Amino acid sequence: MENKKKRTPKQIAALICVIILVCLYLVTFLVAFLDFPGWDRLFAVCLLATVGLPILLWIYIWLYGKTTNKHTIASADFLGGDSDAEATQESDKE
């Protein structure tokens, strides 16, 4: 039997975001060199999406962590565990 590791929704969202970003980089690169009608708007949209997609992914991961009460990379505490979740777990144990 093969041990297939199940992908989490966070991993799937991150993979989709990476694929979209790579496509956006390619389109932005091509649009920068090609001259056709509307290139300036398409270039601006590509640059905006390059910034916006990672922000939306961060929000998704943060909301996932909040709804599942898990510590994620998008948690507001940059140095360690989630103090609110730890306090809740300790009060549940008592």
List keywords for this structure.
elongated; mainly alpha; 3 helices; 0% strand; single chain
Task: Give the arrangement of secondary structure elements.
Layout: H1 9-33, H2 39-68, H3 83-93
Q: How would you explain this protein's 3D organization?
A:
With 94 residues, the chain is mostly helical. It contains three helices and no strands.
First-residue to last-residue Cα separation: 42 Å
Shape: elongated
Helix content: over 70%
User: Structural class of the helices, strands and pairings?
Assistant: mainly alpha
How many strand elements? 0
- The fraction of residues assigned to DSSP E strands is under 5%
List low-pLDDT spans: none
Biggest β-sheet, characterized? none
What string gives the helices and strands in order? HHH
Computed over alpha carbons, the radius of gyration is: 19 Å
Mean pLDDT: 76
The total of helices stands at 3
Short description:
Helix content is 70%, strand content 0%.
